[in-house]
Amino acid sequence: MELRGEIAAMRAGTGDPGALLGEFRRAAVLVPQVSGDRLLTRSFGGVRWILAFTDEAALARFTREPGSGGVPDAEWEYVSVVGARLLDAVIPALDGPTGVAVDIADEDGSMLFPPAPGIVPDEVAVGGTDEGEAL
Question: 31: how many CB neighbours lie within 10 A of its CB?
Answer without folding.
Answer: 19
